[in-house]
Amino acid sequence: MAILNFxxxxxxxxxxxxxxxxxxGLMIFPFFAAQFGNSWVRIIDMALLYIxxxxxxxxxxxxxxxxxxxxxxxxxxxAYMTGLLASPQFAALLESVINQYPVFGESLVAIFGxxxxxxxxxxxxxxIVPLAAATAGLFGALLGAPTLKLRGxxxxxxxxxxGEIIRIFMNNLNEPINFTNGPQGINLIDPIRVFGVNLAGxxxxxxxxxxxxxxxxxxxxxxxxxLFLCIAIVFVTSRLQHSRLGRAWVAIREDEIAAKAMGINxxxxxxxxxxxxxxxxxxxxxxxxxxxxxxxxxxxxxxESIAVLAMVVLGGIGHIPGVIMGGALLAALPEVLRxxxxxLQQKLFGHVLIEAExxxxxxxxxxxxxxxxxxxxxxxxxxxxxxxxxxxxxTKDQSSGTVAA
Amino acid sequence: xxxxVILNIxxxxxxxxxxxxxxxxxxxILKGQIYGLIGPNGAGKTTFFNVITxxxxxxxxxxxxxxxxxxxxxxxxxxxxxxxxxxxxxxxxGEMTALENVxxxxxxxxxxxxxxxxxxxxxxxxxEASIRKRAxxxxxxxxxxxxxxxxxxxxxxxxxxRLEIARALATDPQLLALDEPAAGMNATEKLALRELLxxxxxxxxxxxxxxxxxKMMMGLCDRLMVLEYGKPIxxxxxxxxxxxxxxxxxxxxxxx
Amino acid sequence: MxxxxxxxxxxxxxxxxxxxxxxxxTMVYGVLNLINFAHGDVLMxxxxxxxxxxxxxxxxxxxxxxxxxLAIAIGGAIPVCIIVNIVIERxxxxxxxxxxxxxxxxxxIGVSILLQTFAMMIxxxxxxxxxxxxxxxxxMIGGALISQTQILLLVLAAVSMAGLVLLVExxxxxxxxxxxxENPRVAGLMGVDSNKVIVATxxxxxxxxxxxxxxxxxxxxxxxxxxxxxPGLKAFSAAVLGGIGNIYGAMxxxxxxxxxxxxxxxxxxDLTGGFLGSHYQDIFAFVVLILVLTVRPSGIMGERVAxxx
Lengths: 405, 256, 309
Hints:
The complex is a heterotrimer. Chain A has a domain at 39-87 and 122-311. In chain A, 66% of the residues lie in helices and 3% in strands. Chain A has helices at 12-33, 38-63, 72-85, 89-100, 102-112, 114-119, 125-147, 152-172, 218-241, 244-254, 256-261, 266-292, 302-316, 320-349, 356-374; strands at residues 193-194, 197-198, 208-211, 214-217. By secondary structure, chain A is mainly α. By secondary structure, chain B is α/β, with parallel strands linked by helices. Chain B has two domains: 1-82 and 174-256, Rossmann fold, CATH 3.40.50.300; 92-172, no CATH class. Chain B has helices at residues 45-52, 75-81, 98-105, 114-119, 122-142, 157-169, 187-202, 214-220, 238-242, 245-252; strands at 5-16, 19-30, 34-38, 60-65, 68-69, 83-85, 175-179, 206-210, 223-228, 231-236. In chain B, α3 runs parallel beside α6 (157-169). Chain C is mainly α. Chain C has a domain at 17-226. In chain C, α2 (39-60) packs across α9 (229-242), α5 (148-170) packs across α6 and α9 packs parallel to α11. Classes of the chains: A mainly alpha, B alpha/beta, C mainly alpha. Chains in contact: A-B, A-C. At the A-B interface, α9, α10, α11 and α12 of A face α2, α3, α4, α5 and α6 of B.
């Protein structure tokens, strides 16, 4: 990446300049892409959500080196929280409680009021997002507390199991009390309303949002919101990385025993990474639920966990620009395949030889194997500082006995 | 040299399954001493180190640092109490620069957390600056200040050893415990290491040292203890050790 | 009481298949310290290959007795699975033997995805019916029913495991495997070719998984490209439960997990007052895994420990 360089420590001017260029490009992008139809902007909106997830997972896997294969569970927690508290679902829940445990149910109605029984709970986004973050964080702490002492691959399997457990619960927690509405999922989730603006557009406006005189499609409005949040997350994780805490995480990743010997309470520091990562996942989940308007267990399968992990690992583990690139590539990939490769096959062969879905899987698998075999640090890893033109004194006097492996 | 006892350990026993690795081992180190621990391979030196620093749990033993009892139950608690160690097979944070490695050493004497990291308020910025400054000072002290920004796994072997010592010093320890710091070094490097250790001693630090190079130990240490099969067989001044019959039989093989 | 015995029998059947797959995990872990994430998909390859063989047999030699057809199917699935596993080891894992934990794990996941994708391409993504070859008349044991297929399954599992034990305890290769699992460097110094041992380990694991795969298909009458993944994870949990790295542990762990899962699914409704139903069956294996790893990481047979690097 020679034209744009983001390495602030090496060349701050160029780095900030590159960021400015990128920022301008990002701001005008949706207006440019709108020429080709809203669907591309929607794809980018989803890609931004995935990038948020990847950045959150980067704290866990990239900074602290903890293998989490069930990260999507926290996304699910955030999304279903939103589903429960910003849609008619709570009404369905109350109804099932009344059916099963009439006395308990009636008293709940008395507490919450008949309004809730009719329409469910509809909390504002300002309440739901922090709540989702906190709940997901809590789940992260609960999962992490007993398991973070485990060695790498065991932790991976355990977290995978946890992810599956969450998915199974989401899929089945509709009887006897209807929390999650089972395989059908939860519909009619409120869109995001901030500062009096409904990001899905007022009813009847055909998904057009009006902000201070500007009108734009709803997907564009969401784009700017997600972009802003993404930038915020990049800022926060970057600050975390270059701090005492960030160094402690990397120390644990590099050599846990030495980290302990240097006074780092590895248990607590690991738990902190896990919990923070989980809470970011929860935030992304809440945004996802509001954006999409519905949630169902299918969106939270193991495939998704692996996709986010791939974004981090293949993009450049621990390196924020690499993770963003990985997220953008892998999120856009299925869409590119569907919109480009399938028609291409039609043209060349007359019919579709390999469906986009299959091709996506194939490329995923190949990418994981090939990249780990050839560039295990990812496609865009953190730059190494090995050659400093100003310091070469280790070639002068002493010849080392043995060079450390 | 003051008479203050920095490390006072007694009655350490450690058994691994069928093997009694340490039998009634104790040690007393005065402030400002360089104290050596020698013995044949497998004598239990590193095991004793690991027990003192919390990597292994002893079966019995009392542990006092600078007059205060400390619990060797967890390595990070031991570091906090004031014992810093290096490892036989160097354990650096390879992907970090030399400076960052030493900055990690300051972790235990600083306290900024998430809030400070994200908001970088005045106290956080000041702490970070002081961490950086101290780390650079320590790198200069051990003689590798010019490599501050080099990724540590690209340092030469000898420099990596020094870096590990700098990192340990960063924790402001009462006792610096070095596990075979001269391993793999040639004569010139050993001389430089010796000078560094004397320099550290002159700063008033106390050092506990495991080494195989007996000649170097005899010239460097104020007192020595010899372990064999997990038991202390001799303790005292270098001259005493050299002429100790049991030690000669067990270890020195009649020549030195 | 009838239900109880029925659940036990179901558990034994399920557990036998878990045991066969768990052996593959535990043996590879023993020599390589690697969790072969893709091992469950080898089960699937075995099932699919068996199905294809049976299709041909049914078309060209329909008069053969069911037992014979199954035997041929298993006999054909074994070499295919062995080849697949050996190729995987050679291409994907060998270079990463000394890499930090993350790389082999990601590669293994990638291999798993690739196996499933190829299966999707060859055999389509739809569930495929597995022919019923043995008489479907069940046998009554102590008030519970067991099908002939299931009896065959138990017999084959027992025979395979016995064969493995014989091989590991009595043959030269078996000794080499045990030596390498204990201390690869010393084994190498004693003249053991670690590469050969590793290849043999992968081959054995694959063979057992092939048997499990074909019998899985015969038992459940339906197979699909993604069928190997969850059973694979559960078999890994079984291996951990029994004590990872220990062959007897894998066998015991497999059976025990199968029974736990079966009893759990059967009684969970009663236990939770109707709150959780039998769809939660899959959870048991993961809960067991988490419990074992947090409470007693060395498992039933108590060997390697999962929290030391």
